[in-house]
Amino acid sequence: MSARAGLPREDGAGGAFVRLGRANWVNSAALIGIHGGAGLAFWTGISRPAAIAALVVYWTEIFGLSAGYHRYFAHRSFKTSRGFQLVLAILGAIPAQMGPLWWSSYHRRHHADADGPGDVHSPRQDGLAWAHVGWVLHANSAEMDPSYVRDWLSYPELRWLDRMRWVPPLAVIGSLAALGYWLGGTSQGSAAGALQMVVVGFFLPTALCYQVTFCVNSMGHRFGRRRFETADESRNLAWLALLTNGEGWHNNHHRFPSSEKHGFAWWELDLTHYLLRGLESLGVVWSLRTQSMRSISMETVP
Description:
This protein is mainly alpha-helical. The chain is built from 14 helices and 2 strands. Helix 3 (48-74) crosses helix 4 (82-93) and helix 3 crosses helix 5 (100-112).
């Protein structure tokens, strides 16, 4: 990778694994802790209340990343009020994937040279393992280039959240623990306790959220169908789109990155788009940027 990307390859194989002493130990500890915490579900078991909590947290995290961090902060594909802008930033921070400025900066950097020498996480340049998780664990991933997010730096609440990015996930963990404690005391042991609610309700869905997000960066540039001829290797993956509320239509997105809608065909489910349309009808968001179906049909690869 180029010096501009800030994540250089080592010995020509940056995609292998991060070398000892070159790791971002904060990110590494967070990833290990969240995935290790998810593994505790085999010990705590999964009760019905915990399973419901897991589903709610997972889809909340996916919406925060898809609608908030990605389509709004990284691509500005719709407009909203400053208040709901903060709500989107908080929701995006719940899955512990850094703050909105950091996330947007790296994603914009990715689009600036997708699958080129300056790409931050390219399977073409550095291999699947690097694109999936290696780049996040590298020491230089702690750095954030503010030049990519100058449009957001004027908001002090976003700068604060970028520094205090652990507040939202810790707030969710605390809330789940309190809920589990209360449920455990009111249902004679049939409901989840505090530990199970935290393990199953937060760590399990958050670990899955990490993996599907990583899959967009790795598998979304290696496997699947290419509807459009693009300079990068972006692909459409239906199963990934189902798990990410539409983010798996990655080739569509790379061809029309400013489009709020990622699923173009009737069968390309894009739950984030549907939710944003619902919020638009309520006046919460507006000016959704979509690509005309005529321009899409003219460019589709046979």
